[in-house]
Records
---
Amino acid sequence: MKDLYHSQRLMRQMRRQAMQRGVVAILDVGTSKISCLVLRFDGQGPLSDDNSIGSMAGQSGFRVVGAATTRSRGIKFGEIRAMQETERAIRTALQAAQKMAELRVDHVIACFSGGAPRSYGLDGRIDLEDQVVTEAEVGRVLAACDVPEYGAGREVLHAQPVNFALDHRSGLGDPRGQRGQALAVDMHMLTVDADVIQNLAHCIKRCDLELAGIASASYAAGISSLVEDEQELGAACIDLGGGATGLSIFMKKHMIFADAVRIGGDHVTGDISMGLGIPAARAEWIKTMHGGVHATGMDDREMIEIGGDTGDWEHDRRRVSRAEVIGIMRPRVEEILEEVRARLDAAGFDHMPSQQIVLTGGGSQIPGLDGLASRILGHQVRLGRPLRVHGLPQSATGPGFSSVVGLSLFAAHPQDEWWDFAVPADRYSARSLRRAVKWFRDNW
């Protein structure tokens, strides 16, 4: 963990440099598309790097001055599989966003959805001897957390203090300046496959950019799609992407659990392509224009021209009913939701005081999905769109842009993480494992 600790601190320094220059690029590297925003900071709003344990508040201080999206290449399940193809796609999106902004960008903050994320709940406690809590004591209590044996080939992506307790007072957002006898902390740690992070960092370096931050796409989607009350009282954000479906659970304005299902909207498109014997591009158009998950009597009569250019007139003039398309799509959508439900159950989501679920991501736009999701997941479900941020083009306000918009908020108002504090260097132990789910059930 020590190497990653230093690399994360280095990225935080890069972010400060970007803030000083007043411009940074935001990059969502997805399976079906790569989205890029260029942010300009105006020096107003809470953009300083003074540690401020707590939530990302507001969205002042930056404006979107460039935006672009391009079809993703070389990525599967949210992970880079063909470096050169992904590099070309990132360059395409970045150059278009820079052209719109009329600015050159050197620093980028990126998010991704792959890496097989795993959540852990950690806790630590130190004695204070009736002294005032300072930043040094926060560093000490973070160092007192038992870091789990998370396995070789894994790296820590997020390590966030989500709750402090001073003596018998729990639920503190920031204990500094208060006096007590004992300080305790609960921390959420998210690990991912190391190769996924390293490949993304290498790809960005090949694009002549400095990596100033990296985050989970599920985390970013939750930041932008959950309203303040949902983040405070407890809610799950389900981000239906092209190659993967991300899941994040928030409480007390912090992410306390994350996971991913390696199935997404591209698999639905693939089923239509296979079922109807048509190219993937045509299947994607049919899914977008005529897709759904609930068939009615009307859908038996609504006919869709499949089209084609095979030269076989009979083949290219085929027509199918919308009900047939829905019949192909529904089983795969149900499979995705059943997988999500299994992960929510494993996370002990039923034990949370509030059980709101928000669907976002490009795949959430399938008509009738919220009703089907409510039935399968057994909770209240709503469709979520990203928060409006200054300067965001209308074309980037849909649910497919939740991660890139959330990453903008993350860039402007990063939550405190382990590496933001002076953690004693000799405390990188790896001892007992505690699953996040049991932890937040017990602690909240």
---
Amino acid sequence: MNVTDFKLGHWSHPEKTTGCTVLLAPELVPAAVEVRGGAPGTRETDLLGPGRMLRRLDAVLLTGGSAFGLGAADGVMRWLKEQGRGFPTAAIPVPIVAGAVIFDLLPGNSVWPEGQHGYTAASSAEQWFVGGAIGAGCGASVSKVAGREQAMKSGIGLAQVDTPAGAVTAMFVNNAFGDVFDPDSGTFLTTPGNQGVSSQSIAMSSSTSSGSGENTVIGAVLVHRSLDANSLHRIAASAQAGVAQTIRPAHTLFDGDTVFALSTGDATGSYAEVFQLSIGAQQAASQAILNSIRNAD
């Protein structure tokens, strides 16, 4: 997928068990975040909330390694500093990098992305977006309500939707607790849902917390036009609705579902434009989740 105004880079562990993905904005751009899961692992999300001074980002890090993986953001900051990027201060520009993690640690072989890997992902970023089992998607899996041994492989899903107000691109790392459901066909793409018993029904009848805090769907929606942070907050919330359309169940206590929204510049959109872009974000997020399964290999 060719994207003209943002760049995407990956670092994948040699054994493809973990990795990190860096989304580079063209400059310090307006951004927002919507966190719906009960077990998030994040960095610099507070500065994007309503009433905050900055509400802008240079880059987003999506990474494996649980909380350990957030250290990869140090390398992203170092690369951005070398480019002279960041929020201007009296000393030096300070790069603003937000991030979110998935849990992909393996018993007996726990490795995670570190600073040098974030640097590699940032320095290799390009306008041609690649998804699948790469970067932060290397260790992703879904349908873990019945235990990790029942999980299916997932990865990074990409999708783009055109609206009358502009295009919206979605990229998601799908490491969900639940099943993936296609709302258009009315069918599940993952087990146990495609065997006639959904993860949602299993979860409702079970008292287990198998995999608690070890799941999440993280991602970003990119609005390919100028838009202010308040409007982006609504668009991020709409993208979370797309997650809920395709993940059954979504936003559970055991997930850390986090969505970032970025635009290319700061401008106030009309009500009609924000509405159209929000619907586009919801559709793009839903399609990206489906593509994370379809293109997992």
